[in-house]
Amino acid sequence: MTRWRAIDVARQSGKKWPITRLEPLEPRPPRGDIRVAKPAVAPRPASPGAKLTPLEPTLVELTLPWPPSANHYVRHTRAGKHYVTQAVKTFRLEVWNESKQRRVGLQTGPLVLHIEAHPPDKRRRDADNLVKCTADALQKAGVVADDYQFEIVTVKRMEPIKGGVLQVRIYSA
Questions:
Q1: Least confident stretch, 37-41, 73-77, 91-95, 125-129
Q2: Which neighbouring-strand residues pair with 144?
Q3: What is the pTM of this model?
Q4: How many domains does the chain divide into?
Q5: What percentage of residues in the chain have a pLDDT greater than 90?
Q6: Inside any domain, residue 51
Q7: 85 and 132 co-located in one domain
Q8: Residue 18 buriedness (CB in 10 A; 0-12 / 13-18 / 19+)
């Protein structure tokens, strides 16, 4: 299976409008040549409760509180203005505090974001709602220059923990 990378053509060519092009991370082999792709993670362990271990070393590992939903990220006034809710501002501040306690520096280059989500209860939730608020908060905290750097994002649901917790790991892509 080919892994793809999004290329921002507008930044490279100086255009003002966004143009994105996909290109494979590895060059395609010539016809007739067969290559076996290297796995991104180690083979699946035998026991069902065991964790997958990435082959790349972890650059950043943070334990964050449960973020507000992307559905409650922005509010709108009657006058048509938009603003970020207080819950999002509080979450951003908590991420900033955690990153400063761990002395996390600015990460550059393409990155992989892996989130292990321990929800606060057993209600059904969309996994993709976690990514927006978390990636934006990591950018505001100075962990990454731009959340555009995350080429691969994975979210894994875990057992509920009272209050909810996110285990965030950032790897080099």
A1: 37-41
A2: 107
A3: 0.65
A4: 2
A5: 41
A6: no
A7: yes
A8: exposed
